[in-house]
Amino acid sequence: MRFLWTFIWSVLLSEMVIYVNASMNGVTFQVMDGLLAGIIVTIAVFLITAIIPDDPVDVHEH
């Protein structure tokens, strides 16, 4: 379920950024650009969460 929600939010936020950027630059809005950006962001989020360790951090007193 977390994969689905991550994908949905990534696509929605990417579409919003692409829309605002297209509006400010005066070009036409392309839905596929936002969808592609959302897919890339989703993959990046999953890769980053897979790389970051889940182990507790040892506290070292100096």
Give unreliable regions as ranges: none
Task: Please indicate the count of domains.
Answer: 1
Indicate the mean pLDDT.
Answer: 91
Percent range for β-strand residues: under 5%
Q: Name the overall outline.
A: elongated
Q: Which series of helices and strands comes N to C?
A: HH
| Secondary-structure-derived class | mainly alpha
Question: How is this structure best described in words?
Answer:
This protein is an all-alpha fold. It has helices at 2-25, 31-51. It contains two helices and no strands. Helix 1 packs across helix 2 (31-51). The longest helix is centred in the N-terminal third of the chain and has 24 residues, at 2-25. The protein is elongated, with a radius of gyration of 17 Å.
Which terms would index this structure?
elongated, mainly alpha, 2 helices
Quick take:
The protein has about 60 residues and is mainly α. It contains two helices and no strands. It has one domain.
Provide the fold topology.
Elements: H1 2-25, H2 31-51
Helix pairs in contact: 1-2
